[in-house]
Amino acid sequence: MLHTDLIDQDPSLTFTVTTAGADKPQGRTIERMLRTHPRIRLVEARTSPADVAALMAEHDVVVMPSNGQYWHETFGIVSIEAQHSGCRVVASDDGGLPETDCGALDLIAPDNSEALAHGILEALARGAVPDAQRAAAARSFTVSQSVDQLLAVLREPSAPTPWSIVQELEELVRLPSPDTTPRPVPVRALAGMPVPSVRAGEMA
Predict the structure, then answer these.
(1) For 159-197, how does the pLDDT look when each residue is reduced to its tens digit (9 = 90+)?
(2) What are the φ and ψ backbone dihedral angles of 139, each rounded to 5 degrees?
(3) What domains are there in the chain, each with its CATH number?
(4) What is the model's pTM?
(5) Strand partners, 63
């Protein structure tokens, strides 16, 4: 993305990257590559919520270009934290990232450097997140909302697992078969009822 003409045309754009993930072999390789780029400021990973929020507040846009070939973002708490901090977020339309929209999220096609560059420039062109929109974002995905939603899910009847279905079917197979031997049907005779006789003198 940094090598596209869209970014090269604006030398005022600068990028900050944290070393989060540098404890893994792929992360160390990426870190070595980033250290040689003249427009990237590489900083140590922030580990406390206050430090993360302070770093985000120094920037206009937070970028989450999750690579679908290696990692599908399951939810994306960073996206929510960035929007709560007043940043616009440009993220891949992949995994759980679309669910993190607090009003300042722009989704772009995953694994597409041109789309990422366009998304960053468009987010910058819209300017800072308005105060009212930022306040509304801070009311989204709060701790109490997350707890209430989690409890609601836990209260719902759980769907049967494939393992439980197999066990129930095996239990049905072990049950004795019903007795299908024909049984005689009792026949009840209807006793005849006497018909009362009518004498001629009794007729009207």
Answers:
(1) 889 998 999 999 988 888 877 777 776 656 555 555 555
(2) -90, 0
(3) 47-154 (3.40.50.2000)
(4) 0.68
(5) 90
